[in-house]
C-alpha cells in the first residue's frame, strides 16, 4: 500500500505525481464510445476540422478520470474509503491526442470524521498540465481516508 493515512496529510502539502501519461486517439475514442457519448467534437475528425480547435478534442470526462488516476499512488491507494464529492471541476484548456499529462495534488483541508472515529475527511485540489506546462483541468474533491490505527 502506498497511499497515505489520514494522519499523514496536512494542509499545504503538495504532491507532484509520476509517471505522466500521453493521451492517445484510441483513449479518446474508446472512452467516448464506452460511455455512449456520440459528440462529434470527440469522434469526427471532419467535423472537428470545422471548429476553432481544428481537430478532435479529448473527452473532458476522460481527462478528469486520467488526472484522478495519476494521483492515486501518492495519495489514497489502499487508504481511501470513498469519494464524498467534487466541489468544483474546471476545464481550462482542451486536451488533444498526443498531449502528455502530469498531475499534482494540494491538500486544502483536513478534518476528523464527526461520526466515525476510524477515518477522516481530506479535501484535495488536483491539477493537470500538459507537456508545455499549461494548466488543463483543476478539481476539488473530498475523500474519506482511513486512520492509521484503524488500518492496523
Secondary structure layout:
Layout (H helix, E strand, L loop, with lengths): L13 E9 L2 H10 L5 H4 L1 H5 L10 H16 L4 E12 L8 E13 L6 E11 L5 E12 L1 H4 L1
What's the number of helices?
Answer: 5
Strand/helix succession: EHHHHEEEEH
Biggest sheet: strand arrangement: 1-3-4-5-2
**Structural class, from secondary structure content?**
alpha+beta
Helix content: 25-40%
- Largest β-sheet summary: 5 strands, antiparallel
- What shape does the CA trace take? elongated
Give Rg in angstroms. Answer: 17 Å
Residue-averaged pLDDT, rounded? 96
Distance between the termini: 13 Å
Low-confidence stretches are: none
Number of strands: 5
* Strand portion: 35-45%
Tag the structure with descriptive keywords.
38% strand; alpha+beta; 26% helix; single chain; 5 helices
How would you describe what is shown here?
The chain is α+β, with helices and mostly antiparallel strands and 152 residues long. It contains five helices and five strands. It has a five-stranded antiparallel β-sheet with strand order 1-3-4-5-2. A hairpin with a 5-residue loop joins β4 (119-129) and β5. It is elongated, with a radius of gyration of 17 Å. The model has no long low-confidence stretch (mean pLDDT 96).
Amino acid at each position: 500500500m502506498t497511499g497515505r493515512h489520514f494522519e499523514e496529510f496536512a494542509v499545504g502539502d503538495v504532491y507532484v505525481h509520476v509517471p505522466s501519461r500521453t493521451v492517445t486517439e484510441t483513449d479518446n475514442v474508446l472512452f467516448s464510445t464506452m460511455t455512449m457519448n456520440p459528440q462529434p467534437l470527440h469522434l469526427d475528425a471532419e467535423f472537428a476540422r470545422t471548429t476553432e480547435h481544428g481537430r478532435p478534442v479529448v473527452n473532458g470526462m476522460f481527462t478528469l478520470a486520467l488526472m484522478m488516476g495519476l494521483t492515486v499512488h501518492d495519495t489514497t491507494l489502499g487508504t481511501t474509503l470513498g469519494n464524498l464529492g467534487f466541489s468544483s471541476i474546471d476545464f481550462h484548456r482542451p486536451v488533444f491526442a498526443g498531449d502528455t499529462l502530469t498531475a499534482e495534488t494540494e491538500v486544502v483541508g483536513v478534518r476528523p470524521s464527526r461520526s466515525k472515529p476510524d477515518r477522516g475527511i481530506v479535501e484535495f485540489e488536483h491539477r493537470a498540465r500538459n507537456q508545455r506546462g499549461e494548466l488543463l483541468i483543476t478539481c476539488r474533491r473530498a475523500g474519506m481516508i482511513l486512520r492509521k490505527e484503524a488500518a492496523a
